[in-house]
Amino acid sequence: MSQSVDPTWGTQVSDTHEFPSKRDAWLVVVLLLAAIFLASASLVLAFARPSPTWLAISVSALLLVAAVFVVWVLSATSYRISDTRLVIRCGPLRRRLDLDEVDEITPSRNLLAGPALSLDRLRVRYRGSTTGLLVSPLDRAKFIDCCASHCRHLRREGNRLVRAA
C-alpha cells in the first residue's frame, strides 16, 4: 500500500478518518448575520462618499476580508485523524497535533472560542497546554473511538479518554 501526502491537510492519506464539525443552528445564524453585517458595512464605507478616502477603502477591505473569513470558517471546519496526527481545520487555519501528545479527551460545554461550531464539544488536552483545544465533531462517539484506536496511551473512561497510568 503506497502512502501519499494530502496537500490540503499535510497528512498521510492511507488510514485517515475525517469528521465534519457539528453546527448549532443558532451559531450558524449568528455567524452568517455577522458576515452579512461586515460585508454591508464594507460596501457602505466604500461607496458612501463620491470619493472615498484611503482610510475608508482600507477599513472597507478589512471588513470584507473578515466577512469572507467567517463564511470560510462556517464552510470548512473539520477534524482529521491519521495514524500519527490530529489535524484540526477551521477555515484557512490548520492545527496539527501529534497523537502522542494528547493527554485526554473530555466532553465540554465551554463557551471559549475554538475550532468548534457547536457547544456540544470535546476538549482535547495535550502536552504543553493547560486549556487544550475545543472541537465539535458531528459524530462524537466515532471520533472518540477513532482516537482510542490511534492513541494506545489513552484509556476509555465512559465517554472520555484519559492517559493510562
Write the layout of secondary structure elements.
Layout: E1 5-6, E2 11-12, E3 17-20, H1 25-47, H2 54-75, E4 77-81, E5 85-90, E6 93-98, E7 102-108, E8 121-126, E9 133-135, H3 140-150, E10 154-157, E11 160-163
Antiparallel strand pairs: 1-2, 3-4, 4-5, 5-6, 7-8, 7-11, 8-9, 10-11
Helix pairs in contact: 1-2
Write out key terms for the chains shown.
2 domains, alpha+beta, 11 strands, 30% strand, four-stranded antiparallel β-sheet, 165 residues, 34% helix
Tell me the fraction of residues in β-strands, as a range. 25-35%
What is the strand tally?
11
Shape: elongated
CATH hierarchy class name of the largest domain: Mainly Beta
So how many helices?
Answer: 3
Helix content: 25-40%
Total number of distinct structural domains: 2
Mean pLDDT: 86
Annotated CATH topology of the largest domain: PH-domain like
- What's the helix-strand series? EEEHHEEEEEEHEE
List the strand order in the largest sheet. Answer: 9-8-7-11-10
Summing up helix and strand content along with how strands pair, one would put the structural category as: alpha+beta
- Model regions low in confidence, pLDDT < 50 over at least 5 residues: none
Rounded to an integer in angstroms, the radius of gyration calculated over CA atoms is 19 Å
Q: Largest sheet, if any?
A: 5 strands, antiparallel
CATH second-level architecture of the largest domain: Roll
Report the span from N to C terminus.
Answer: 35 Å
